[in-house]
Amino acid sequence: MNAQQNHELAEKIVKLLNQSTHQMNAQTATKLLEARKEALAHFQEKPARAWTSSWATVVVGCITEPFSHNLRAGFVLLAFLVAVAGVVAWQTMSQQGSETAELDQALLTDELPINAYLDKGFDSWLKRP
Amino acid sequence: MVKAALTLIFGLLLTFGAVAQQSPGDAVVKSARPLWSELSPKQQAVLAPIAAEWDKLDTTRRKKWVAIANRYPKMKPDEQQRLQSRMQDWANLTPAQRRVARENYQSLKQLPRPQRSEIRQKWQQSQQSAAPAQEATAAPDAPAK
After folding, report:
1. Cβ separation of B104 and A111 shorter than 8 Å?
2. Residues B44 and B82 both lie in one domain
3. Which of the residue ranges B18-22, B43-47, B126-130 would you say has the lowest mean pLDDT?
4. Which terminus in chain B has less CB density within 10 A, N or C?
5. Is residue B131 a part of any domain in this protein?
6. What residues of chain A lie within 8 A of the CB of B64, using their CB?
7. Distance between the two ends of chain A, CA-based, in angstroms?
8. How far is CA A90 from CA A66, A94, A102, B32, B62, in A?
9. Nearest-neighbour CA in chain B from A88: distance (Å)
10. Pairwise CB contact (< 8 Å): B82 & A85
């Protein structure tokens, strides 16, 4: 079946559906309308949407009204800051530890002794080789 | 009420900053881990040169040494030898000296390879020429007997 045949078949289907719609009785039309309304009402009551909007309200409230008397928003902000600070501190500390271990190992096993890297003359050669 | 909450937030952040910046005091060292007795026999053998200093190290430095000890078996024999001989000197340096050495090492590493080996040679030559000079200054006292 090529594209043109597809198009023709689709046109026929649309035509038949339109004809049937015009011939539909009032009772069936009312039932369909009610079913549609009910489906839409359920869609709006989805819990995920409600959660998102409540969080959005809190965040927007924190940004737009930082000095409002909303104590709950204050505590949410506090908890958020503490959590972020904790995560950042933990990551920084663990990263620093492993980086220093690698660096110190490389330095201690290098061809040149430690004294070389503490030598003031060495420091000047690095700047002007 | 919100003012109080904000004050609390800043207070906590300041405290956190102060704790993070704190240098290892007695309390930090006393609670430092792992203890020497908690190390495996293999780790103890590698870290033997700094066994006497272990109790003075804070947790971060102890963990760093444990990480180095764990990598020890994968090092080349000459690297193992260098590490063992330099460990104690390194542990006895001040934090400022260790920082300078790390910075210089990293600066050297960033240079192109020919330039790096040139600087290495220069330093080694300067050490060789300094050694006879030291012997010469010490020599006049020797034949006095």
Report:
1. no
2. yes
3. B18-22
4. C
5. no
6. 97, 100-101, 104
7. 77
8. 28, 6, 19, 17, 17
9. 12
10. no
Nearest to B82 among A89, A96, A109 (CB): A109
Q: Does B123 touch chain A (CB under 8 A)?
A: yes
The pTM of this model reads: 0.53
Verify whether the Cβ–Cβ distance B101 to A107 is below 8 Å. Answer: yes
| B97 close contact with A: CB closer than 8 A | yes
Is residue B75 assigned to a domain? yes
Q: Mark whether B85 and B34 lie in a shared domain.
A: yes
CB A122 within 8 A of CB B111: no
Q: Are residues B36 and B75 in the same domain?
A: yes
| Amino acid making up residue B25 | G
B63 and B31 belong to one structural domain: yes
Q: What is the mean pLDDT of chain B?
A: 80
The whole-number pLDDT of residue A29 equals 87
Domain boundaries in chain A?
69-129
Residue B74 lies in a domain: yes
ipTM: 0.70
Its domain, for residue B73, covers 24-92
Give the C-alpha separation, B18 to B29, whole Å: 17
The verdict on a CB contact (< 8 Å) between B107 and A129 is: no
> Per-residue pLDDT averaged across A66-78, rounded?
74
Yes or no: say if B69 and B43 are a contact pair by the CB < 8 Å rule.
yes
Decide if B144 is inside a domain: no
B106 touches chain A (CB under 8 A): yes
How many whole angstroms separate alpha carbon A101 and alpha carbon B90?
13
